[in-house]
Amino acid sequence: MFTPKRCEFDHLLEVHFRVVASLCKKDNSSVRARTYIHKTIGHKREFKVIDQILDILDEEKFLLQNIADTSLITESDIMGKIWIPLIKKVLFVRGNLVRTKVGETIPPHSQEEKMLQYDDAKNIKAFKVDIRFIFDLEGKEYDVGAGEVARETADKAKILHDKSKLLREGKDVLDGILKAVIVEGNAQKAVGHAIQIKGLCAQVISVYLTNTGLYVAIPVFKIYFPISLLHLNDFADGLKNMFRFVDFLCDNAKLYESAIMSRKRRISSIDFDYNMQQRKLPAHSLLGLIKPTYYSPVNNDRFCSVFDLPDTKESRDTPSPEPNVEEGFAFTSNTDENGWIMLDSGNWFHRETNITLNNSPYE
User: How many other β-carbons are positioned within 10 Å of the β-carbon of residue 182?
Assistant: First the structure.
């Protein structure tokens, strides 16, 4: 069962943050606090996050004071002036392993899955996501998280719609990782993370797959951005949780990196030259439990809804007994001699294991 871990948050950083907050409250200004930062922890990368928070509080006073006025504040204001700058700075501190992609783009995995689900329809488009968290490797993008943004006064329908999208996007992030990893231990670590933002509040949600085949979404924690310098001290826990969220994303990126590099090492093995058969690796236990995601039909025609993929229903509903994740053991009329088939999207799909690769397994 998924248990959200605690991040490695420097105790001294927390101490200095609280001192900074006390100076801001006492002076109702960030001037003395900034001087203190540069004298004490100016040499640490983490100080840039505190500096960024102070920049937002100093430069975006109009936005913060009018956060509930829909005639003055847009979703783009909230996303681009508060949350994205903060998230990007924490990502920088953690080494820029993950980047943000903003502006309602469609995750490739979701697009491919929806095209498979509605294979007889035209102009199919999956959900557009406000924020995608991307891990880049060898020119390919891998989604490790997703985010949606709403204004402070968003109604219940908007909030539920965003949550519905994020639950499915979180599941798709999880499925993408599960189809990539091989080792059981890494599969058990895979979690789909999402962040739902409403004004100055952000809810982090994590989706995982149980050993019984049930997808479970957990609301992990909330982050409340302060409305002014006077309330900065209340953001101490929120700052720690922001680091935790970024660490979640980086963990997923490392799972992708490990899986992809492992495949490359196996593909480039020279064992065949010595007439040695490479040891087959058993697929992890969650691979056969992956279920299709429900996507709303084209033009929202509910009579055309598809709740399962016709050609994979049996294999997805029934866990595989012990499939092997190994090149060269499956033969079908539509695949090559090793069981791989190239999709129209350019990705490669292994029919027996339901594994999808962004590039050729033979490269």
Answer: 20
- Which residue, 240, 313, 326, is CA-closest to 282? 326
- CA-based end-to-end distance of the chain: 36
Q: Which pLDDT value is given to residue 313? A: 40
What is the pairing mode between strands 348-350 and 355-357?
antiparallel
Domain co-membership, 110 together with 162: yes
When pLDDT is averaged across residues 43-64 and rounded to a whole number, the result is 93
CA dihedral 128, 134, 137, 140 (to 10 degrees): 10
3-state secondary structure of 202: strand
214 Cβ partners below 8 Å, 6+ apart?
none
pLDDT (tens digit per residue) in 263-315: 777 766 555 555 454 556 677 888 888 888 777 676 665 555 565 544 444 43
Q: Which residue has the tokens 């820029």?
A: 96
State the pLDDT at residue 9.
59
Q: Does 293 share its domain with 335?
A: no
Does residue 116 sit in the same domain as residue 225? yes
Residues 294 and 336 placed together within one structural domain of the fold: no
Domain assignment present for 41: no
123 and 247 in a single domain? The answer is yes
Which residue from 253, 105, 115 is spatially nearest to 176, judged by alpha carbons? 253
